[in-house]
Amino acid sequence: MDIMKADITLLELITPLFNAYRMFYEQTSNLEGARQFIQERIANQESVIFLAMEGETAVGFTQLYPTFSSVGMKKGYILNDLYVDTNYRMKGIGRALIQEVFQFCEERNAHFVQLETAADNVQAKTLYEKMGMQLSNEYDCYVKRF
After folding, report:
1. Tell me: the pLDDT tens digits for 68-127?
2. Domains by residue range for the chain, with CATH
3. Where is 11: in which H helix or E strand?
4. Nearest-10 crossing angle of helices 11-24, 31-43
5. Percentage above 70 pLDDT, the chain
């Protein structure tokens, strides 16, 4: 397995994985919308995407969005998306993608990397905790959806 930082040349490999990720979260399939969204993120340098490959097959990805910590006066990253194709799960791909994220953040002297997941996503939560991430109850998170 190889993990690479994605650029626009990998758009067609990322798109079906991103679409499948959205469907996992009960969104309607929309390949063209997924392609456009990822293309814009890459073109505008608004996210960092790592792609896991098994030979010529794209098997997983993670997407980070940069943010900042005013208190820490450093950049932080939100690990917004992590997905591994169902046929390739339980093979260490998710772990490898997260490790790549940690390395990327450490190399950039980031203040933090954070993520959110569904409360019932036990498999993912178990992995995150094994990777040294901790559930934070330090702050309440408020949301207003539009």
Report:
1. 999 999 999 999 999 999 999 999 999 999 999 999 999 999 999 999 888 888 888 889
2. 2-130 (3.40.630.30)
3. helix 11-24
4. 120
5. 100
User: Which pTM does this prediction carry?
Assistant: 0.91
- Residues near 140 by beta carbon (within 8 Å), at least 6 away in sequence: none
How many CA atoms within 13 Å lie on the side-chain side of 96?
Answer: 20
Q: What would the two tokens of residue 135 be?
A: 């559930």
Nearest Cα neighbor of 1 from 81, 103, 92 is 92
Beta bridge partners of 3: 52
Check if the beta carbon of residue 34 is closer than 8 Å to that of residue 18: yes
Residue 25 corresponds to which tokens in the numbers above? 């979260």
Angle of CA points 10, 15, 21, to nearest 5°: 130
C-beta contacts of 137-141 below 8 A and 24+ residues apart? 141/116
